[in-house]
């Protein structure tokens, strides 16, 4: 169990000033190292003494990871250390990718958005309180899930994608990036590789200890958004217990390409319902070739939840997901 103490256990602090140095340090320290971005997720873990890295690599001085710039093909490239406020308020993001600006602007509070980074928001760990309180569950290397039993408190947990672990991905920007078909660039000692956003987030059936493809020694360096297609419509909605600020219970992000009055293509992504942002192939298939109206939205919503299974306290999430998907088709603008 977590015991809050007044001091973080000691670690070696490294403060590289360039990407090359940062990649080298992250590689050298491997699973004994910890990447520090804005620190909002990091310091919880360290102060509770649940994660005890030997070395912390602080990216705060790596200026080249902080920018937002235009790409040759009319898209945008956002550095992993770009602050959420910068993403939400950037003129380029707001005019061309309002879906991402909206999602980033709904993360937590202004103070958290000023400090938190896009990279940290994508890579942050799940908020399952059993795990975050230090219970030795599957995700922590143990052999039980405390949230999945008939007596567990699991109102915020998943309805899809469970595999021993029933925790959800907490990020607001993650579903927006999947809906926008973004690409994540990851660097390590062997070079760089790129992932489609959809493949960047992984479920517990692949590795129960991680929520993304990142392994020890990997550094997320930037996120690339392809040029928006003319006439694309988008929708983002986040449902939370408290209106002022809170993690989402569920959120939806969609991008629809509408030609005349017919949906030609759709990307519909729901988060907060699975250990990763769920791109609903079934809902997209229903929407394609139909008018983006109430009836299509209703059908898409039904399709999206066809495989959903509630835990003891979260059957409300099935209705929530159905309605979010419906609105994301009907009300995309
Ligand atoms: C009170 C509170 C409320 C919150 N509410 C919300 C909310 O409503 N919606 C939401 O989406 N989030 C919310 N968050 C989460 C917050 O937005 C994230 O904790 C934050 O975005 C993490 O970003 P950071 O820059 O602080 O990263 P850090 O905390 O420094 O890092 C987070 C994780 O990512 C890893 N990491 C960071 N950058 C990289 C990189 N470039 N390469 C590899 N690994 C990396 C770190 O090692 C760590 O594991 C909330 C947090 C708090 C404390
Ligand atoms: S849901 Fe996942 S993180 Fe939470 S207790 Fe179960 S195994 Fe651990």
Short characterization:
By secondary structure, the chain is α+β, with helices and mostly antiparallel strands.
Q: What is the name of the CATH class of the largest domain? A: Alpha Beta
Named CATH architecture of the largest domain: 2-Layer Sandwich
Average pLDDT number: 96
> How much helix, percentage-wise, in residues?
25-40%
Count of individual helical segments: 13
Main sheet summary: 5 strands, antiparallel
CA-based gyration radius: 20 Å
Unreliable parts: none
The bound ligands are:
flavin-adenine dinucleotide, iron/sulfur cluster
Strand arrangement in the largest pleated sheet = 4-5-8-6-7
* Cα shape: globular
Distance between the termini: 47 Å
CATH topology of the largest domain: Uridine Diphospho-n-acetylenolpyruvylglucosamine Reductase, domain 3
Number of strands: 12
> Structural class from helices and strands?
alpha+beta
| Overall number of structural domains | 3
Percentage of β-strand residues? 15-25%
Helix-strand topology string: EHEHEEEHHHHHHHEEHEEEEEHHH
Task: Write a concise keyword list for the protein shown above.
single chain; 333 residues; alpha+beta; Uridine Diphospho-n-acetylenolpyruvylglucosamine Reductase, domain 2; Uridine Diphospho-n-acetylenolpyruvylglucosamine Reductase, domain 3; Enolase-like, domain 1; 5-stranded antiparallel β-sheet; 4-stranded antiparallel β-sheet; 13 helices; 29% helix; 20% strand; globular; binds flavin-adenine dinucleotide; binds iron/sulfur cluster
């Amino acid at each position: 169990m977590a015991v809050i103490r007044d001091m973080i256990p000691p670690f070696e602090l490294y403060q590289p000033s360039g990407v090359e140095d940062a990649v080298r340090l992250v590689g050298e320290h491997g699973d004994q190292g910890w990447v520090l971005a804005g620190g909002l997720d990091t310091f919880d873990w360290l102060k509770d003494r649940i994660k005890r890295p030997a070395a912390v690599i602080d990216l705060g001085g790596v200026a080249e990871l902080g920018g937002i710039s235009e790409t040759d093909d009319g898209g945008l490239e956002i550095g992993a250390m770009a602050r959420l406020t910068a993403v939400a308020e950037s003129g380029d993001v707001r005019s061309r990718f309002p879906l991402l600006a909206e999602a980033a602007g709904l993360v937590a509070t202004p103070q958290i958005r000023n400090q938190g980074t896009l990279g940290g928001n994508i890579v942050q760990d799940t908020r399952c309180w059993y795990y975050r309180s230090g219970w030795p569950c599957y995700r922590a290397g143990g052999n039980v899930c405390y949230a999945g039993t008939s007596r567990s408190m699991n109102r915020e947990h998943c309805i899809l994608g469970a595999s021993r672990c029933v925790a959800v991905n907490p990020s607001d920007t993650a579903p927006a990036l999947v809906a926008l078909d973004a690409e994540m660039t990851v660097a390590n000692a062997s070079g760089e590789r790129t992932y489609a956003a959809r493949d960047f987030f992984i479920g517990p059936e692949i590795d129960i200890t991680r929520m993304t493809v990142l392994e020890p020694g990997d550094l997320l360096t930037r996120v690339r958004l392809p040029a928006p297609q003319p006439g694309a419509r988008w929708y983002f909605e986040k449902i939370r217990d408290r209106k002022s600020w809170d993690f989402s219970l569920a959120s939806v992000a969609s991008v629809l390409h509408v030609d005349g009055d017919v949906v030609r293509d759709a990307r519909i992504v729901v988060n907060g319902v699975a250990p990763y942002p769920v791109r609903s192939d079934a809902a997209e298939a229903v929407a394609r070739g139909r008018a983006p109206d109430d009836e299509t939205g209703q059908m898409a919503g039904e399709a999206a939840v066809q495989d959903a299974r509630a835990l003891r306290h979260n059957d409300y999430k099935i209705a929530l997901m159905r309605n979010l998907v419906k609105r994301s088709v009907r009300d995309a603008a």
